[in-house]
Amino acid sequence: MKKSTILIPIIIAISVVAGIIIGTGFSNNKFISNHDRKLNTILNLVSDGYVEKVDINNIIEKTIPDLLSNLDPHTTYIPAKDLTAVNDELDGSFSGIGISFFIMNDTVRIVEVLSGGPSEKAGLLAGDRIVEIDDSVFVGDVVNNQSVFNKLRGKKGSTVKLGIKRATSPKLIYFDLVRGDIPVNSIDASYMVDKQIGYVKVNKFTRTTYNEFLTALVKIKNEGAEKYIIDLRGNGGGYMEMAILMANEFLPENSLIVYTQGRDKKNDQQFWSDGNGSFQDHEVVVLIDEYSASASEIFAGALQDNDRGLIVGRRSFGKGLVQKQFELSDSSAVRMTISRYYTPSGRCIQKDYKKGETAYNMDIYDRYTHGELSNRDSIKIDTTNIFYTRHNRKVFGGGGIIPDIFVPSDTSGITSYYINVSNAGLLQKFAYEFTELNREEFSKLEDYKHFLRILPSDYALLNDFISFASSNGIPARWYYINMSKELIVSQLKALIARDIFGNEAFYPIYNKNDKMIQKAIKAMNENKATYPITDEETVK
């Protein structure tokens, strides 16, 4: 097994090429066998003698995913037509026009114009409605998220013509936009939750995540942060290298971060901290939930096993398999599992997948029905699979990272009325229309804090929304509204703020009553996140 001390420039270089292999090796003679001849014979029989003419290439395309599904849930086939889009998501950028949008009444409405992108340079504005694309009407049943992506994204340097309906213009306004590289930000927000504690929300691990993360940490450190909450809830992972670099910022020298083992020993590696992290002396809490997976679990596991950070939330997803991407001759690709990763204590946190794809995909639902999301005692812990952290705390393998402090899923305010208006998208629609009516006034504000001061009272905002929901087919049900009113008002404020100022305004408002964040703050104030973490009583 190779031991690798982190050298940041080297890791970044590795991350740029990780997962991409030129050539597949599938033409090597060792793959030619009786089974290959058997498959070729069957395909030739079908091509030459089947009762109807068939497209053999189409059959092969449909068969490959079924073939790979017999291996594990994360070995996948990526058709050539999807490869660019799939890679762009992890590369941290794509070619497009640079807007955030949502669909309301079968029309694309621009919520945010990304700074520095083609749309900003051309003069598009938040609130504009896209009604034509390339001289064709683009409203009605044809409008959905995928059709919008297909129309607006494209090759860098290519042109798209948009017909825009703007509130201040009686006629359509036309823009010719040249598509350009648009960054896919992996940091949703970074801000101070109080005078000492900073918060960073990481949504994925792309090639740019480490640089974004470090920038966010430095920003809130300059604002006075001495302690940090790293929110990985809902983060399904991405590049392992980014998680390693992020963990390195918090760990003292010669701390094991993660290691990998596979059948091919050249894939066995260890990654150790280099002692150059800028935040080794700062308290840190990591938030996870049942949708935190892969690279999120590497980061959380590294801090937990080194007793360096406190893990708060619910048991993570449980993905401990490492994939490498093999590009095929027709520009399709296979992402194949080549090894397992292990946390510093020796845990492989991959959950069981031997019971089949259906059972694997139903795991989160099974946790819900079993009561695990609401009660720590319902977590299925394999007590025979015990490991020990650097300071001798017990941790368990067998499926996900189990938090040091459990926080149940927050269902307060969730009523049938809230579910109905939420499922109908009325919270977002009301926020958008409210913003449109007041956009001129809001555009003069410095930040979301000024915005909150001029908003109508909570009572007035709620009543306006109830009337709006009633006019959209969901009648007032006051018993349930009274139970949901705090949740509804809080979300409306956050959504309106996002329509004006973006995600940096959304999360400070949305998170204000977040139970998990409150638990993290309480733990820090009680010094439970102080390094090294040794107190078994934190595990509750």
Instruction: From the alpha carbons, calculate the radius of gyration and give it in angstroms.
Output: 26 Å
Largest sheet properties: 7 strands, mixed
Mean pLDDT over all positions: 87
**What is the helix fraction of residues, given as a range?**
25-40%
Strand content: 15-25%
Q: In angstroms, what separates the terminal alpha carbons? A: 36 Å
Class by SSE composition:
alpha/beta
Q: Which shape, going by the Cα principal axes?
A: globular
Number of strands: 23
Low-pLDDT residue intervals, each spanning 5 or more residues: 7-29
Report the total helices: 18
What does this structure look like?
The longest helix has 24 residues, at 478-501. Helix 8 packs parallel to helix 9. With 540 residues, the chain is α/β, with parallel strands linked by helices. Strand 12 and strand 13 (197-202) form a beta hairpin. Strands 1, 2, 3, 15, 16, 19 and 20 form a 7-stranded mixed beta sheet that branches. Strands 5, 6, 7, 8, 9 and 10 form a 6-stranded antiparallel beta sheet that branches. Helices cover 37% and strands 21% of the residues. The model is unreliable at 7-29 (pLDDT under 50). It is built from 18 helices and 23 strands.
